[in-house]
Design a protein that fits this description.
heterodimer; A: 113 residues; six-stranded mixed beta sheet; B: 114 residues; mainly beta; four-stranded antiparallel beta sheet; 0% helix; 48% strand; globular
Chain lengths: 113, 114
């Protein structure tokens, strides 16, 4: 079946630091890949997506590249702000299916001023 | 415009009681999903509705869980004889039909079973 694995544990870093959150996936077909973000007290929001190999999704300074050879979709941002503090979820959906999302466990990111 | 809304925002119930959770999707969105977010299991798919097609119930954890979608719009998730392990945040999402369309999530209903 489809599954998504994110690195364990919360991430704490200082403002303007470089952020990387690792995400790898297992899928039977050719999935679309997503990063969702959940800010404190808010609902899940789509941050970025990529629908085929080598595509790069980007939004709000965040980027992730669909790497088929390593089955990865790591999230990066060059200079984080306090307002980026949130929980980040990597997810996939199988194309041609019902578009249901399979999520990773999520990573809490805390940015300290 | 209006997003996905869910009610109630919080529900506390006693073990063994039935609960109903409601989802109002974005107008015009024919696809509707229920997910569950719990500490132990993360975010899990529960059920999917698309137009008038038979729903995909493959994610429902037991026969105590059921859902319906009336008139292709509002959906209700019902949990019968609630158990403590049902405590979680229940999320509803809607999207346009077709692959790769963004799912828009509601704020969720936090269910606590005492």
């Amino acid at each position: 079946g489809n599954s998504v694995t994110q690195m364990e544990g919360p991430v704490t870093l200082s403002e303007e630091a470089f952020l990387t959150i690792n995400c790898t996936y297992t899928a039977t077909g050719y999935p679309s890949l997503f990063w969702y973000v959940q800010y404190p007290g808010e609902g899940l929001q789509l941050l970025l997506k990529a629908t085929k190999a080598d595509d790069k999704g980007s939004n709000k300074g965040f980027e992730a590249t669909y790497r088929k050879e390593t089955t990865s979709f790591h999230l990066e941002k060059g200079s984080v702000q306090v307002s980026d503090s949130a929980v980040y979820f990597c997810a996939l959906s199988e194309r041609g299916g019902n578009n249901r999302l399979a999520f990773g466990k999520g990573n809490q990111v805390v940015v300290i001023p | 415009g209006a997003g996905v809304s869910q009610s109630p925002s919080n529900k506390v119930t006693e073990k063994g009681k039935d609960v109903e959770l409601r989802c109002d999707p974005i107008s015009g969105h024919t696809a509707l999903y229920w997910y569950r977010q719990s500490l132990g299991q993360g975010l899990e798919f529960l059920i999917y509705f698309q137009g008038n097609s038979a729903p995909d119930k493959s994610g429902l954890p037991s026969d105590r869980f059921s859902a319906e979608r009336t008139g292709g719009s509002v959906s209700t998730l019902t949990i019968q004889r609630t158990q403590q392990e049902d405590s979680a945040v229940y999320l509803c999402a809607s999207s346009l039909a077709g692959s790769n369309n963004e799912q828009f999530f509601g704020p969720g209903t936090r269910l606590t079973v005492l």
